[in-house]
User: Fold this.
Amino acid sequence: MVHLLIIIAGVYVATLGFAVLINVSPKYLNDGGIVGVAGYLVYLAYYTYIGGYVGGNVLGAFAIGIFGMIAARIKKAPVIIFNIPALVPLVPGGQAYQVMKNIAMNKPRVAFGFLMQVLMIAGSLAMGFLLAELVIQLFNYSMRSMKRRRKTA
Assistant:
């Protein structure tokens, strides 16, 4: 339990730190940190109980996309303010470092393995955001069509 609280605190601080670094307004920092923690917890739950970093990153990015859109609607702010900092804990920085290290050490096969991980994680993050956008657009479309049906009835 303590381990999970340390992870949550670390993800929250990392998200806030990156948000400060890219000059996000202080009134949006807490919400961005919450979005980041929520997305990482979805990733962590999938990775822990089901396994696989690709599926975990898809669902984590999906959760960040959905929660970021909700936060943007509540705060009346651009969604990018919440999504970009929240994505930082899921970015494959360690694997990218290993690619460069193994290239420098003249180990191209090991570097290629890490490069494939980086590409799969990056693709899964993009897929998660795409799915979140699709779900939000479908939800908005269905809400508009229901309002139109009520007006005509």
Notes: The chain has a mean pLDDT of 94. Residues 95 and 114 are 6 Å apart (CA to CA). The chain has one domain: 2-152. The first helix runs from residue 2 to 21.
